[in-house]
Amino acid sequence: MTDPAVSNNTPGSPLRERGRGLALAWLLVVALLLSHNAYLWLVQRVSPDTDILALLPAARHDDAMQQAFVHMVDSAQQKVVVLVGARDWDSAVKAADAYTAVITPQAALLQPMTSDAAQLQDTWLSTFDHSRALLLTSQQREQLRNAPALQWSQQALATMYGAFGGPKLGAWQDDPFGLFGGWVQERAQETPVRPRDGHLFVESGGRSYVLLLMNLQQSAFSIAAQRQVIPLLDQADRAAKQAVPDSEVISAGVILHAAAGSAQANSEMTTIGVGSLLGILLLMWLTFRSFKPIALIALSITIGCLGALSVSWLLFGRLHVLTLVFGASLVGIAQDYAIYFLCMRLGADGQLTSPQLLRRLLPGLGLMLLAALIGYFGMALTPFPGLRQMAVFSVLGLLFAWLTVILWFPLLIQADTLRSTALAERYSRSIGKWPLWRSNRNGYAMLAVFAVFTLAGLMRLQVSDDIRALQKTPQHLIDDQIKLSNLLDAPTPAQFYLVRGNTAETVLQREEQLKQLLQAPIQQKLISGVQAISNWVPSQQQQQADRQLIATTLLAPQGPLTAIATAIGETASWQQTLRERILAQSQPLLPEPFLASAAGQPWRQLWLGNIGGQYASIVALRGLNDYQHIPVLARIAPRIDGVQWVDKVADISSVLTYYRQYMGWALLAAYAAIFVLLSLRYRRAAWRSMAPPALATLATLALFGLCAQPLQLFHVLACLLLLGLGVDYGIFLQEPTEHYRRFAWLTVGLSAVSALLSFGLLALSSTPPLHAFGLTMLIGMALIWLISPCFANPVSPSYDNRK
Amino acid sequence: MKLAFSHMLGRFCAALFITAAGAAHAAAPIAQIQATLAKPAVMCGRFDQTKQLSGIKKPLLSNGRFCVATGKGILWQTLQPFPSTLRITREAIVQMQNGRVAMRLDAQQEPVVKMINNVLFALLAGDLSQLDKLFELDGTLKNGNWQVALKAREPGLAKAIGDIRLDGGAYVNKVTMQEASGDHTEIVFSDIKSGNGVMSAEEGAMFD
Question: Is A14 in CB contact (< 8 Å) with chain B?
Answer without folding.
Answer: no
